[in-house]
Amino acid sequence: MIARTEKPLNFRPRLILAYANSAHAALTCRHFRRLGWEVHLTDSGREARRLAQALAPEVVILDTDLRDESGWLTCAKLALDQPRPKVILFGSHLTPENHRFARFVGAAALVHRDASLPTLVDEVLDRALSPTA
Q1: Which of 65, 102, 111, 114 could lock 107 by a disulfide, CB 3.0 to 4.6 Å apart?
Q2: Which residues, other chains included, contact 114 with Cβ-Cβ below 8 Å and sequence gap of 6+?
Q3: Which residues have CB under 8 Å from 113's CB, separation 6+?
Q4: How far is the first Cα of the chain from the last one, in angstroms, to the nearest whole number?
Q5: CA separation (Å) from 66 to 29, 34, 77, 89, 128?
Q6: Domain 17-129 adopts which CATH fold?
Q7: Domain assignments of the chain as residue spans, ordered by start
Q8: If we measure between CA atoms, which residue out of 42, 130, 120 comes closest to residue 88?
Q9: What is the pTM of this model?
Q10: Numbers of helices and strands, H then E, in the chain
Q11: Per-residue pLDDT of the chain in tens (133 residues, 90 and over written 9)
């Protein structure tokens, strides 16, 4: 019998969290770090774009209500500048029109602000691992 001798990967996926609510951001940040993600936190769309350009993250989570510009606008700008990261929008109004608009601005998903943290984690993992999402 041959034992597997594969070495573990020294890869930590990168995630940028751009949230307006600092308490929720801190909780989410800690959770993803415990899962092994390298997490960068901001409350600014402009800073989220700068981090995305500098760090090439796998996933960017954007609150739709950021302090300097909407997450919708930040997502559209990221889609033009950085087509690689999967962007998940995080908002309070999940109407059919908002889902269509999320796709229009280049988001991979739109998650409700009241969704549980495990729901958000599942969405991120699904998007990060899916080449077509």
Answers
A1: 102
A2: 92
A3: 63, 90, 91, 92
A4: 39
A5: 17, 25, 14, 11, 23
A6: Rossmann fold (3.40.50)
A7: 17-129
A8: 120
A9: 0.85
A10: 5, 5
A11: 444 444 444 678 999 999 998 888 999 999 999 999 999 999 999 999 999 999 999 999 999 999 999 999 999 999 998 667 899 999 988 899 999 999 999 999 999 988 888 888 888 888 766 665 4
